[in-house]
Each structure stands twice: as structure tokens, then as C-alpha cells.
Amino acid sequence: MASVHERVREDLNAYVDQTLPPRRWEQISYHLAGCEDCRDEMLALCSVRNTLGACRASEAPSSLAARLEQIAGDHADAPLYLAAGQGQLPTSRVTRRIAASGAALLTFAVVIVVIAALVAPEPVRIADPVGSAREQFSLSASAVSINEAVGAVLLAYEKGADLGASITYQARGFDDDTHAVTADDAAALLQRATDADVAYSGTQRVWVSDGQGYYRSAAVRVAKQPGEGALLSVLDARGDEFSSSFLPDHISREYEAPEGWSFRIADELETVQGRHAVHLTASADAVPVAGWWIDSETGILLWTERYDATGDVSLAVGFTSLSFGSADLTSASADLSYSLLPASSSGGDGWCVGLPDCPAMLAGLPLVAYSSAERADGATMVLVYSDGFQTAVVGCARGVLDDDAGTVTAVSTSLPSVRAWQYDDDVVTVATNGSTALLEQISAQLPAEESHTETLFERVGAGLQRILPGS
């Protein structure tokens, strides 16, 4: 039995001559749209019969050809439009064949244009830009070791982990006896926590406010080995492992306190999981914004609280068990959650794609890491900015907002706040755990909203790229 390719090739001559029945012509057209070999053979047939370019170069109106033939006579050796001895006058039959061939090729060109428009890929519709941006923030926050456990839990939640019913959280509170420290001293303490050269394992618990006075909560098993990385395993409400990710230890950043924040340290050490801890607090306009409990011996971060505009805890993470010593980083289900490059790798050409510019600083936050890729459907760019206190993740990817939505903004005191908008063929997103003012500042420094438009020429071009690779 002949294959579908053989049956198509048997009809290619008739297809080029436009003599096939409509249904068979349609079947072959769709086959050619997806079969490069048959398409090449069809194009070869067209070339043999007469290329469209040759027709354009030599074709004259049939009335003019007939008139010249009358003037020259049937036996003229040198027709008026040919130099003596350079050629013979085409017969009426040849003239008709040239005209028919030109018409067939013109029809074929139109067919190709129509097919290209039909098969042109539709732009990706982004139905949930807020959820996508928060997922990207969670991946990036984990990958650059900014609140590792928090990022892992937020990502698990976005992927559908059952964290159980919301629960209460008892804030650790504030100390009465404190003394002021400079922003540089506070940054140095947290820098020491990030750079702590110590191996440990244990369990952390994360609490994320639901905005109603309760908290979504999950436990995260943590194992960290200096120079190698960390293994984070998120447990669901039943205590089963929902996800496990390995985070390589290769991206470092410098802490720099946000402008307007003031810092204080408790006069006395506190106790967290049986260990002595330095209690550092930060305030803005006399309202607490964050608190950290830092192990006085090793420098690792034992507990963290972030506060909303009213001073209530919006997010907390802390060790519920902890042991020091060599950590086991093996896990059957562990995956690299995200691949980012440190900002220091951005010195070469071509690292910034999608956006017209990838600034080294946004709203006072330095670029610490990035990820970029050129794909068939467009470029993708992820930029991570952080001063160690506040983090912002900027994304740019090919697609259009669902239902042609304008700028989308979602502000939260516990989850990352997000803004997303259309930038021609791409969607730009900003997700940050900072203030609404920070979100506004970052958005203002990025390309402005620009509606997605696609001309017929662009659509046909995209279709040709799909059916004729290399065109």
C-alpha cells in the first residue's frame, strides 16, 4: 500500500497546475504545511515548469504578443523585439503556456500566503499574570538564598500544595531595652548570616498571613553544606514531602539597608531553639518593618518576622529544630528549582534580551542575578534585584495578557505584590516583597505599557517561518 507521502507526490503535478478537485487540493495543502520533503519536491516542480521570477522577466500581455507576431509574420528570422539571430518568436501555444504557468504560480503564491496566515502561531495567552509572577518570585528568591524556606513554601503553594487550614501565629514580640545601631552595622550582621560558613540541618516553619488574622503554614526540612548548596523539602499538611529542590551555593550579594530604615539591637541575648540569639529590629517612620534573630555563635539566621503597615506579622520563618555538622544533600526527588547567573556574569554582549535595557540598579536595588534565553517563540528575561532586605523580580516573556487586559496590579502584605502589563509582543511583570511605593518606582523605570498589535505581514511572516524553516 502506497504511503501518504507517495500518494501526495503522485498528485503534485496536478496540484501545481491547479487541476485537482477542491477537497483533494485542500488535503495536499495541509500535508505540505507539515511535510518538508513533499514541500521541497513541490517547489522543485514549480522551478522546472517556470519560476515566477522568469515569468516576471519575460512575460508580455497576450495582445501585444499577437500584434508582434502579425507584424513579423510566421517566418520572420528577426522579430521586432529580438536582435537579429538571437532567438525565435514564441508560438501562440507557447505564449498561452507561459501565461497559464504565470497564473498558476501566482495562484500558488496566494495559496502559500493564505496557508501561512492560517498556520501562524497564536500568541501565548497569560491568564494569571499575578500567579505566574509570584511563582517566578518564589523560584528566584529561593535560588539567590533570600528567605530560602519562604520561597520554597510560596512556590509549593502556587503549585497546589495542601497546607491545611490556616492557623494562628504568636509573634515573638519586641524588647524594651534596646540600643540604636547604624544601617551599616545592621547590614553587616545579615551579611554574616548569608556568608555563614557552617553546615547544618533541621526543620523550619513558615507562616504567611492570609490577611484575616490567620496564617498559611508549612514545615520545610533544610540541609545546608557550605560550598555546595542547600536542600529544601516542603512538607504538606499530612507531613508528606510535596516538593524538594537543591539550591547551588554560587550567588552572593551585598546587603545595603533601604533608605529611611532605622535599626536597634536588644541589650540582652534571647533564646531561640536553645541557642543564644542577637535580636535586630528595623523600623520605618517609627513603625516596625522587620525583626531578625541571629545566632550569636555561628551567625546563621534563626528566626525572621516581617510586619505590615499596622505592625502585625505578615510573614515569619524560623527553626523548630536545628543541628550542626555535615549535612546530607541527597534526595531522590530533588530538582534544581531555578537556574540563575550572578550579576557579575552580565559583562558580555547579548546577555540582556527581550527588554531594551537591563539596568544594574532599579529603585535603589542592585541587580544580583539574572536568567535569559532566546527561544523560537521569543526571548525570556528574568532580573533579580535585592539589597538583602527587599527583593524585586522583573520578568519579560513573549505573550499577551488574557482578554486584552491593561495593567494588572495586585498588592499584598504577605505575598509578593505584583504589577503586569503588555509591552508590544511581551508581558512585563514586577514582583516584590517591598512596599507599594517600591513597586511603583520599579515599574516607572521599565518600558511603558504598549498594546499588542500584529499586522497581516507579520502574521504571514510568522506562518512562513513555521512551514518553511529558514525562509
From TrEMBL:
Keywords: Membrane, Transcription, Transcription regulation, Transmembrane, Transmembrane helix. The chain crosses the membrane at residues 98-120. Residues 7-39 form the Putative zinc-finger domain. It comes from the Bacteria. This is Zf-HC2 domain-containing protein. It comes from Tessaracoccus lacteus.
